[in-house]
Amino acid sequence: MIKRETNVDEILKEIREIINQMIPKEAKITEVEFEGPELVIYVKNPEVVMQDGELIKNLAKVLKKRISVRPDPDVLLPPEKAEELIKQIVPPEAEITNISFDPSVGEVIIEAKKPGLVIGKNGETLRKIAQKVYWAPKVVRTPPIQSQTIYSIRSILQSESKDRRKFLRQVGRNIYRKPELKSDWIRITGLGGFREVGRSALLLQTNESFVLVDFGVNVAALNDPKKGFPHFDAPEFTYVLKEGLLDAIIITHAHLDHSGLLPYLFRYNLFDGPIYTTPPTRDLMVLLQKDFIEIQQSSGLDPLYRPRDIKEVVKHTITLDYGEVRDISPDLRLTLHNAGHILGSSIVHLHIGNGLHNVAVTGDFKFIPTRLFEPANAKFPRLETLVMESTYGGSKDYQMPRDEAEKRLIEVILHTIKRKGKVLIPAMAVGRAQEIMIALEEYARVGGLDVPIYLDGMIWEATAIHTAYPEYLSKNLRNQIFHEGYNPFLNEIFKPVANANERKDIIESEEPAIIIASSGMLVGGPSVEYFKHLAPDPRNSLIFVSYQAEGTLGRQVQRGLREIPMVGEGGKTEVIQVNMEIHTIDGFSGHADRRELMSYVARVKPRPERVITVHGEPQKCLDLASSIHKKFGISTRAPNNLDAIRLK
Amino acid sequence: MIKRETNVDEILKEIREIINQMIPKEAKITEVEFEGPELVIYVKNPEVVMQDGELIKNLAKVLKKRISVRPDPDVLLPPEKAEELIKQIVPPEAEITNISFDPSVGEVIIEAKKPGLVIGKNGETLRKIAQKVYWAPKVVRTPPIQSQTIYSIRSILQSESKDRRKFLRQVGRNIYRKPELKSDWIRITGLGGFREVGRSALLLQTNESFVLVDFGVNVAALNDPKKGFPHFDAPEFTYVLKEGLLDAIIITHAHLDHSGLLPYLFRYNLFDGPIYTTPPTRDLMVLLQKDFIEIQQSSGLDPLYRPRDIKEVVKHTITLDYGEVRDISPDLRLTLHNAGHILGSSIVHLHIGNGLHNVAVTGDFKFIPTRLFEPANAKFPRLETLVMESTYGGSKDYQMPRDEAEKRLIEVILHTIKRKGKVLIPAMAVGRAQEIMIALEEYARVGGLDVPIYLDGMIWEATAIHTAYPEYLSKNLRNQIFHEGYNPFLNEIFKPVANANERKDIIESEEPAIIIASSGMLVGGPSVEYFKHLAPDPRNSLIFVSYQAEGTLGRQVQRGLREIPMVGEGGKTEVIQVNMEIHTIDGFSGHADRRELMSYVARVKPRPERVITVHGEPQKCLDLASSIHKKFGISTRAPNNLDAIRLK
């Protein structure tokens, strides 16, 4: 729990004086407050401020803060009234599908099939809306597939808006507190995911601030919290949690090994500060966290946290788009950049101590274009330390070229179909599943594949979230969707599996089929169900398209285990005979392979002084670190969990 | 402050049952308690237990604890009565000079000029004393020079014995608490003295325990606590202090850069646990700490701590002789070994987690025989990580051979005397001063040197402490003292300077003289006074015989600064012209030079898996680490302050 004494009242007083001098009286300022990483000015007449396009810019320059001007809550029309007016102003051809309000920021979110018509020529319609209803209008394209997750997140933010505003103010006051000392030293401690994959968590510390980058769980080691959870026993982490000194948590992307233990912090009241991440990461991580506890529940385990803890995650998340620069503490400035790994995945860039040092943490990243995403960003304003993943950091970890991988995938599928078999592709609901979908969709459209592709276990819902954030997808896909008007995710070849009965039907059917099901490493989820039933039949095929971590069933099967004891329906253990074909096609990975990792270091601008390799088996982290040192002469380290490394 | 819940009552209950079974009833056990790192059994009839020589050994084996049997306080004779009886029993030829009592351990300390006669044939006299007075007799040779420090320490321990026993019991209960978890990880954090000299402090952490090795102050950087003090702002250290989790502090040796901030912890109630060190280190550090605050006071500064805080250091110190093995927490076992640097200096060996890992921290050490000490111990039962000093770790840091250094010293002295000049040798009161004394004493005795050698600034008192611990001196010196009956420290050529008047007389006298005065780096103390007055006269000589740290006046003069602004008697700044000859003779150093450092790594048994270089300028630590890695293929590190290194 944040417990710092922030004493910003003095600072706010000075700021208010400056604002009163610069903003015309007619704007009628009612309040000036820090809310999250912004300074918010509430006025009764926002138009007065908006008329002068330079006014806010100048103010921001003078105050060195990001500034939002919002209508005073008193002047906002009641939502029903506002909705009515908006519908009158916007032409019906815009096809508004939903209007929702976020009172915590005075925003009205207008979903429309043709967002251009809501905006109007030069933003005319939008301006008119603002003038009439006072709510700040935000226009969103109606997602072609409805996402339950997105709607429930919006409704949480709407219904909890009072708490939310209180929270944002608390955060704002913490960010803009007077620093106790000049920035002096910086270090990072590995709490998890150092020389291993799973439970990623990095604690960055300065003499002023503390932030976590990622807070994951190792789903393959849940029976032992000492291995499954980040190191709660690291003394500096215990201290920071106990004293309420954690300024923020930044999440690189939604996968559970990076975000899966976040709600746990809320369950045990260990944190009530802000979580920074992109909007798609927020949505996807909530989806995966829910899925995670449901799987635990259905396996008869006591879930690590409850749905209401996930709700707290939503309430505490502040989203940032790529490239938005925000102060998150007196000496830390955060920017998220595209990582190319999954939807919304980010490289975290921290500008520390007003230029004392700059760190980028890649999270998981990809450095070639994929069907879904652009390659990871490799240009930063400044960069001294690069913390990079090493999943494929071994000297022989070269992946198959993407087109070859797709060719092999099709081959295996065609062979399997020919012998009337089924193809099971275990894939994380988020990421690989959609990449495979797009590849197969093209082949279905162009090459004539005509067996159904079943999507089971959150994959459909994850896909819905993809369609809601087209601006986070690759240029190609965006073009296809926006300009060619064709959304490949909507191809009818895709059949979401709604429940266990449908799943049973698919398994029992004699027809060939492709099944993409989560989890990707056969640790719980429907993929395990399919595997159990499809494994004994030699006509079937299993295709691994993603990294199989140490300790997972996927890894065992991949390594050749052919007799697997599993708990059957009656609760009894039975031995599953694996007779199906087992294939591994690694070209679909969302992780940079060895070549990409090395080329990232070669191309990243500016050249870092130090590279720290993490997120890989020990030998891969070490190998990558030593190769980078040899090739580029950059100082490298492959630290262990609980190592703390002084950066400055 | 120690705040752990120790719940040892259960453990003690079990132990008492076992003891009751093994010790005969007639011994009349009155109490069984942990006191410091021992289990103490109080009995009304100690003889009963003592009769069976194997009994305590067997008990120790069964209980896996160090065991002391003590007379119940009720049976102890009153001190006056006991003293009377002892004087009756011991023959007058023994020449008892002092008898003091330490009620906290039921000990009577008998000082005699002929200790052998107090012990008697086969310990007969001693046994007789024990039988009559019940106090456990400890016989000590009467030091030939009276040390005020030693007497005041003894009197503190005697007068505070009630508090002391309470303290020892608290410590014992902490040491033998039930560990919360199995030993799992071990790491060290550099709080000070990493890649620098000064403010040495290393925090060793396991998932069960926390100990500090050394807690020094950088006397050359006192104006900036951020550089002068160890890193109180290291989050794990803040945590450990705040939560009262620091199990112990171990002090390698008395120099202020290793022990100088200890009393500060007591001044601010940050610690009330045990300090482990050798008896001479305890005495010498108390002397140096007192000197330190007196110098601060006389310079018009507010001293960092008060005399009563130094008293707390005494009350909290538990002394160990070299080779004594003691549990200091549930998963840490400590042994101190000779380091050859100064009187009582130790290499700290920690056996961690019942064999999980073994660390040795050299502190400052010397690996060739000197006039005063044997070379550092290089043999350990087990050793995986070696943390070693690097003061002379640079590739060119070879010192002059000792005999050559002595020759040069004599040369400079003779030249100076010839031209009627004075020789000023700034030296730390502890260490170099005595080494130079012994060298000059031999030359005076054998070679005919006949100018007075003045000892100023605690040097005489430090010498007194040396004479009180002959068993900590080199074999040669011990032989000279015990068997040849000649103590070189007592040569009449040495003249302690008692006060400022005497000092003035020496300075103003026209006669040549040798002056050995502290501090060794010209940071306060009488050496600075002498320097001010002797510097302008070209007949005089200044000889540096020890390391001059960055930031000290000594370093500046050594580097060639010849005009020095200094505050004169009236408080005005005057510029001192340095016309005296400036010499540096490095062969007297108490630090291993580059050759010794490398040879230590070559010879230390067993060969460590990892060497961590500390306590040296950055380039020296790095150079030494890289040379050790190249030559021995051992993994090395030269960490920064605030780096934390996982050992296991």
From TrEMBL, chains A, B:
Region span, KHb: 77-144
SMART domains referenced in this protein's UniProt entry, alphabetically: Beta-Casp, Lactamase_B
Cofactor note (record): Binds 2 Zn(2+) ions, which are required for nuclease activity.
Residue numbers spanned by region Beta-Casp: 396-589
Record-linked SUPFAM superfamilies: Metallo-hydrolase/oxidoreductase (SSF56281), Prokaryotic type KH domain (KH-domain type II) (SSF54814)
Region (Metallo-beta-lactamase C-terminus): 590-648
Domain Beta-Casp: 433-557
InterPro entries assigned to the protein according to its UniProt record, in alphabetical order: aCPSF1, Beta_Casp, KH_dom-like_a/b, KH_sf_prok-type, MBL, Metallo-B-lactamas, RibonucZ/Hydroxyglut_hydro, RMMBL
Highest taxon in the source lineage: Archaea
GO MF term set: DNA binding; RNA binding; RNA endonuclease activity; RNA exonuclease activity; zinc ion binding
Entry EC number(s): 3.1.-.-
Alphabetized UniProt keyword annotations: DNA-binding, Endonuclease, Exonuclease, Hydrolase, Metal-binding, Nuclease, RNA-binding, Transcription, Transcription regulation, Transcription termination, Zinc
Metallo-beta-lactamase domain sequence ranges: 198-417
Positions of region (KHa): 9-76
Residues reported to bind Zn(2+) 2: D257, H258, D364, H615
Cofactor: Zn(2+)
Binding-site residues for Zn(2+) 1, renumbered to this chain: H253, H255, H341, D364
Biological process, per Gene Ontology: DNA-templated transcription termination
NCBIfam families: arCOG00543
PANTHER family according to UniProt: CLEAVAGE AND POLYADENYLATION SPECIFICITY FACTOR (PTHR11203:SF51), CLEAVAGE AND POLYADENYLATION SPECIFICITY FACTOR FAMILY MEMBER (PTHR11203)
Cited function: Terminates transcription on the whole genome. Termination is linked to FttA-mediated RNA cleavage and does not require NTP hydrolysis. Cleaves endonucleolytically at the RNA exit channel of RNA polymerase (RNAP); the 5'-3' exonuclease activity of this protein degrades the nascent RNA released from RNAP.
Subunit structure: Homodimer. Interacts with RNA polymerase (RNAP), interacts with the Spt4-Spt5 complex.
Family stated for the protein in its record: Belongs to the metallo-beta-lactamase superfamily. RNA-metabolizing metallo-beta-lactamase-like family. FttA subfamily.
Official protein name in the record: Transcription termination factor FttA
UniProt source species: Thermococcus aggregans
Gene that encodes the chain: fttA
